[in-house]
Amino acid sequence: MGTSGTHSGKQRTISVGILSAPRVEFCFGRDYVATEHDGLVVIDGEAREEWYFTADVMSASVNPSGAEGSFFTLKNVKIGKGFHWERYQDQCFPGDLRLIAREGCVVAINVVGIEDYLQCVIASEMSPTAGFEFLKAHAVISRSWLLAQLDKRDEVREGYSSVVCDTPDELIRWQDREDHEWFDFCADDHCQRYQGIPQGNAAMIRKTNRVIEATWGQVLWYDGRVCDARFSKCCGGALEEFKYCWEDKQVPYLKNARDYKTQETIDLRGETAARRWILTHPRAFCNTRSKRLLGQVLKDYDSETKDFYRWEVKYTAEDLRQIILERTGEDYGEIRDLIPLERGVSGRICRLKIVGSKKTRIIGKELEIRRTLSRSHLYSSAFVVERDFSTRPGGLGRNDTGVIPSEVEGSLPAGFILCGAGWGHGVGLCQIGAAAMGARGYDYRAILQHYYPNSSLKNIY
């Protein structure tokens, strides 16, 4: 890609799964259509177990403004899978293209150098107006996360399981980047956003090229290994600890702290403290409505989300019953209550009891809760629950005095109002908070130290 300066030729390659579909259209020198038939990939009437298009021997017809080298284009790539911004794009990628047939579909896999991949990740995660120090910080954590996952995949972990408890009364499991079977990483938010070269945006290509060159081979380091540098869109003002979202272990550089210059620790595990925090707007780096600042982080489709530091979602009782049924396949009957049983230090719920007329079950951890209570993904699990017993025409909400109608003895709630904080799991770097730090003059080292205390910067190649 654009990383053809002093470091070219030193990149380890990885494989990234871009899309899987019965029919894949792409351009690699010319237009092609690949289809699946009897476990083979068919192109121009010829069926093979695998097709491999190499940039070295086939020049692509697409050359985005300001980019160098050969590229190919995949058409109708789905992004934001399962999220509220799900849509399709034509995307352009550096490197090679591998096509295989799996489960009745053609799987398109990009084989690409790590630094070229990272340049695309930075352009995919951020907007062209992002600050340079912020982008450098993100390049370091994206590289660190990727290499940490490769190291983790290569380890033999006996007894490893993401399911903590699975009984009729309780389901507790954490969702992580499980190993992909046919490639190293996927191209969506499940791993890192990888949407190829920003076509027609020469300024962004030049900026990300400079970012990668400036941080080439730099990672966060702790105790003799690369840090598993997690990040999310908006922490809501309080950083979560690793164990409340994933494995039950302490990670010394993924610690709880307030997302503010004081960096004081904060404990919102108690219901009273969590409610007080979530229902107010405490000062934080990520507490901003500045369109200029948010424009550094939010892509055009992300900007469709108007509130993220504090938000509110309303459900009728029937809507919530249907959503839970669709997401879990289980009919809880009429939903009577949602009861937080355990919260992490940032106030994120990690054990939630769903009380229904037919079924009651405890679920967790945070992503399981977010997936269960939304047709896409609830912004975060840092929320308080208000039961609404209103029968007023026009639906749910507070009455004329600003109060949600309270329970009438023996009645079922008409609906639920979830008042929440943050967007994502809240562990590690907060993208909006980091952008705010960059805008206030913090350099990328200070940003990294704020979100990953106890870690250090290291050049590993």
What is the rounded distance between the termini? 19 Å
Largest sheet: 6 strands, antiparallel
The helix count comes to: 9
Question: Looking at the structure, what is the overall shape?
Answer: globular
Sheet/helix structural class: alpha+beta
Bin the helical content.
10-25%
User: Percent of residues in beta strands?
Assistant: 25-35%
Descriptive report:
The protein is α+β, with helices and mostly antiparallel strands and 461 residues long. The chain has a domain at 13-215. The protein has helices at 114-125, 132-154, 202-215, 271-278, 291-297, 317-328, 366-372, 431-439, 444-451; strands at residues 13-21, 23-27, 31-37, 40-43, 46-48, 50-53, 71-79, 87-94, 96-102, 105-113, 163-166, 170-173, 185-186, 218-222, 225-226, 231-232, 238-239, 257-258, 310-316, 335-343, 349-356, 360-364, 383-388, 415-421, 429-430, 456-459. The radius of gyration is 23 Å and the shape is globular. Residues 57-66 have low confidence and may be disordered. 22% of the residues lie in helices and 30% in strands. The protein contains nine helices and 26 strands. A hairpin with a 3-residue loop joins strand 2 and strand 3 (31-37). The strands form seven sheets. Strands 5-4-3-2-7-8 form a six-stranded antiparallel β-sheet, covered by helices on one side. A five-stranded mixed β-sheet has the order 6-9-10-1-13. Strands 11-12-22-21-20 form a five-stranded mixed β-sheet. Helix 2 packs across helix 3.
